[in-house]
C-alpha cells in the first residue's frame, strides 16, 4: 500500500469512516495540532538521555494522543477498538503534576522559557503546542456543540492538565532559570 493516495489533491482529507472534509476544517486543524504535539514530544524523547527517568512518561503521553485523535477523527465511536480518554487519564496527569510540583524549586515569578538546555526548551515548545491544541479543541467542540459531553470534557481536562505537566517537566529539566523582570 502506497502512502501516496492522491485523494487529498482536491483539498480534502479522509477520516476514520468514509467522510471527507476540507483540510481547512476545524476537525482537521485539531488533528493536525495533535500530530504536532506528538511530533514535538518525539523531539523531547529523542533529546532525553536513554537513562532519563521521565523518558517513559513522554512515551506514555505520546501513546495517549492517538486515542484522542481517533475519537476526533471517527464518525462512529462504537466501531473504534481502542479505549478512549477518560476521567482517570486526566486524574493521573494531575497526580503526576502535583508530585512534580512538590519536588522542584518553587517559582518566584514569571519564567523566561528555555531553561538553558535543549530538553527543557523542547518541553516548553511541547507545552506551547499543547496549549494551541487546547484552543483548537475548544473551537472544534464549540462548532460541534459538544462542549458539555462527557467524552469532550475528558479530552479537554486531559489536555489542560497535560500542558501543566509539560510546563513542570520543563522546569525540572532546566539548568538555568531566568525570571522576567519588567523593570529592566
What does this structure look like?
- This protein has 184 residues and is mainly α.
- The protein has a single domain, classed as Cobalamin adenosyltransferase-like (Hypothetical Protein Ta1238, Chain: A), CATH 1.20.1200.
- The chain has five helices and four strands; from the N terminus they run ββαααβααβ.
- The strands form two sheets. Strands 1-2 form a two-stranded antiparallel sheet.
- A hairpin with a 5-residue loop joins strand 1 and strand 2.
- The longest helix has 26 residues, at 118-143.
- It is globular and about 50 Å long.
Features:
globular, 184 residues, two-stranded antiparallel sheet, 59% helix, 5 helices, single chain, mainly alpha, Hypothetical Protein Ta1238, Chain: A, 4 strands
CATH superfamily caption: Cobalamin adenosyltransferase-like
Largest sheet composition: 2 strands, antiparallel
**CATH class placement:** Mainly Alpha
Rounded radius of gyration (Å): 18 Å
Structural class by helix and strand composition: mainly alpha
Poorly predicted segments: none
The overall pLDDT average reads 89
List SSEs in N-to-C order: EEHHHEHHE
Number of helices: 5
> What order do the strands of the largest sheet run in, or round the barrel if closed?
1-2
CATH topology: Hypothetical Protein Ta1238, Chain: A
- The count of domains is 1
By CATH, the architecture is named Up-down Bundle
Helical proportion, percent range: 55-70%
Shape: globular
Amino acid at each position: 500500500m502506497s502512502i501516496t493516495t492522491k485523494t487529498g489533491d482536491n483539498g480534502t482529507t479522509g477520516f476514520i469512516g468514509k467522510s471527507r472534509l476540507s483540510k481547512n476544517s476545524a476537525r482537521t486543524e485539531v488533528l493536525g495540532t495533535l500530530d504536532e504535539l506528538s511530533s514535538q514530544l518525539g523531539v523531547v524523547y529523542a533529546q532525553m538521555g536513554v537513562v532519563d527517568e521521565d523518558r517513559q512518561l513522554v512515551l506514555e503521553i505520546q501513546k495517549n494522543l492517538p486515542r484522542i485523535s481517533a475519537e476526533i477523527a471517527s464518525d462512529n465511536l462504537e466501531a473504534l477498538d481502542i479505549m478512549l480518554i477518560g476521567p482517570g487519564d486526566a486524574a493521573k496527569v494531575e497526580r503526576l503534576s502535583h508530585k512534580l510540583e512538590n519536588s522542584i524549586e518553587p517559582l518566584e515569578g514569571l519564567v523566561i522559557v528555555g531553561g538553558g538546555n535543549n530538553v527543557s526548551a523542547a518541553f516548553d515548545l511541547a507545552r506551547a503546542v499543547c496549549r494551541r491544541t487546547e484552543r483548537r479543541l475548544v473551537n472544534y467542540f464549540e462548532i460541534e456543540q459538544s462542549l458539555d459531553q462527557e467524552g469532550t470534557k475528558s479530552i479537554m481536562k486531559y489536555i489542560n492538565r497535560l500542558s501543566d505537566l509539560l510546563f513542570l517537566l520543563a522546569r525540572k529539566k532546566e539548568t538555568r532559570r531566568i525570571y522576567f523582570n519588567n523593570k529592566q
